[in-house]
Amino acid sequence: MVKMDEQKKEKIYFTIFKIATFFSVVLLGFILIYIFVKGVSVINLNFLTSMWNHQDITKGGIFPAIIGTLFLAVGVSIFSIPIGISTAIYLNEFAKDNLFNRLIKLSIRNLAGVPSIVYGLFGLAFFVLLLKFGTSLLAASLTLGCMTLPWIITTSEEALKSVPNSFREASLALGATKIETIKMIVLPNSLGGMLTGSILGISRAMGETAPIIMVGATFFMNYLPKSAFDKFMALPYHLFILATQHSSPYSREYALGTALVLIFLVFSLNLGMFVIRYKLRSKKEW
Amino acid sequence: MNQQKKIIENITKKWLFLVSLTTLVILIGIFFLLFFTGIKAFSEISLFEFFFGTNWNPTAYHEPSWGIFSLFIGTLMVTFGSLAFAIPLGIMSAIYLAEIASPKVREIVKPTIEMIAGIPSVVLGLIGLLFLSPLIAKLFGLSSGLTGLTSSIVVGIMVLPTIISISEDVITSLPREFKEASLALGATKWQTIKMVLVPASLSGIVAAIMLGLGRAVGETIVVLMLAGNSRAFPTSIFDSVRPMTANIAIEIKEVIRGGLHYKSLFAIGLVLFLMTFLINFISDLIIDKHVKKYKW
User: What is the architecture of the domain spanning B51-293?
Assistant: First the structure.
């Protein structure tokens, strides 16, 4: 009798847990379908490839915002991928467990927790005003670069840790120096993982809105940024303004269309990286 | 030849070390810029007014007021509102994925949930604006659906993947003997989960919640779009609130650079920075303890 009760209880609890889990899945499905169904009506070639028309938003397109977001992603990558990967190599391959290196690790963990708006304040005070970059593509790239750095270091460290130590030991035993071991054994086996992980981090940065409001994004430009010191349009900021501050009766549809393009960009990048990672992983035999 | 290799190795090592200092420099840089800009605000604003004044109105014509207490309460309201929603859902999902679901289901569902973390927050804000806020206004008979509750729900969705993913990792990384011993003693699966697995992974789950807490405190764009941004002191979750992050985002573009208002926004930034720093520090301590407890 007692046992029956316990089993019944178990069944009830497990069903609740199952519902809770699938709630999240349904939520994701709902979000994607909602954006797709409501946003797809404004998507056409003109919307994707022509310049923004401020007077009549139904005539213009979001081409400069797409380009701006892509430029920003490239700018962030140039800054944060080399520094992030180098830091990961140092921490995983060279750093001894001393106070200084622990301090570096502590700062990485803490940087990951700093709110994006605080990065925005930092970018504004440091890159825009102190270094006099102005509100520009450069200032925004550096600001978001600082923000993505801890993510890139963490994922790169994971890739490095997945290379078995026996590989390193075998190489060192054959008389190779540490640098040679890293160059010929460790990096070829981990670079794929480091780069795909980094690009995942960059794709997250592409969707950030709060910091770029302060350091360089603008709502209306009728030309593409020509230099790193130009302002730029960006998809997330564009859709934010359309959703909250634009007076056109069509602004909602266009905000949803912009959201669809943004999600498509971010998710196709994510999906591509997942596929590459999966292939890289299945090639390994240890 | 050997000598040369050694020199190259040394230079490379030093170079990599210098590069890896970047993160430390950025963290210290952020702190100092916030600190030295924010602190200047207090030459004209009293600390007491800043922290305990309930009225934030720097652009008032007669006498501007600088109290962030209402904003601070707004932040707390959205943060704890979102956690009230995300913690139970997150822990139940984590337990389901770690202990109940078949490996095949887990392999599909876990990455799917993590995809939610990949949705840009501004897109979630948009859905909150177009779908959730009218729904909430209708459901509770409010004149506006832009409330603390609306933003809490959406921020809760944002922190959900963090809580699920880390808690699940913690539960699956427990030693197998825990489970086996309990089952061997005749406990049911549910009893094992309730009395062995959850208590044993509690510190790890708390750390996951702390990380979610940090994200919720710092979330800006969703609250900016959904919380309503009224500066009045919030009395209920159905009020329009203006959390600290949203306040910075709203006002920073309109202030005179270097003016008192600008400095006071940096002071708010400093408060946010210190809050998240503290949250991180505590969750670090908890994780450390957890790792030490279960290192066999």
Answer: Orthogonal Bundle (1.10)
- Measured in degrees and rounded to the nearest 5, phi and psi for residue A134 equal 70, 175
Among the partner-chain residues B27, B131, B273, the one whose CB lies closest to the CB of A34 is B131
Per-window interface: B 241-280 vs A, CB < 8 A: 245, 248-249, 252-253, 257, 265-266, 269, 272-273, 276-277, 279-280
For testing contact with chain A, the best of B106, B122, B219, B274 (most A CBs within 10 A): B122
**Model pLDDT for residues A49-60, shown as the tens digit of each residue:** 888 877 777 778
Quick: pLDDT tens for B257-293: 888 999 999 999 999 999 999 998 888 888 888 777 7
Contact: A153, B23; criterion CB under 8 Å: yes
Residue A221 backbone dihedrals phi, psi, to 5 degrees: -145, 135
Give the C-alpha separation, A68 to A74, whole Å. 10
- Shortest CA gap B258–chain A (Å): 10
Report ipTM (2 d.p.). Answer: 0.91
| CA torsion, ordered A256, A260, A261, A263, to nearest 10 deg | 130
Q: In Å, how far is A224's CA from the nearest CA of chain B?
A: 23
Encoded amino acid at B190, one letter? W
Is the pLDDT at B216 greater than 90, yes or no? yes
- Kindly report, residue by residue over A122-154, the tens digit of the pLDDT: 999 999 999 999 889 999 999 999 999 999 999
Question: How far apart (Å, rounded) are the C-alpha atoms in residues B200 and B178?
Answer: 9
Going by pLDDT thresholds of 50, 70 and 90, the confidence category of residue A1 is very low
Q: How many CB atoms lie within 10 A of CB B59?
A: 9
Q: Which CATH class is domain A68-235?
A: mainly alpha
* Cβ proximity of B30 and A123 under 8 Å: no
In this prediction the pTM is 0.91
Calpha distance A161→A106 (Å, rounded): 19
Residue ranges of the domains in chain B? 2-43, 51-293
Residues of A in contact with B131 (CB under 8 A): 34
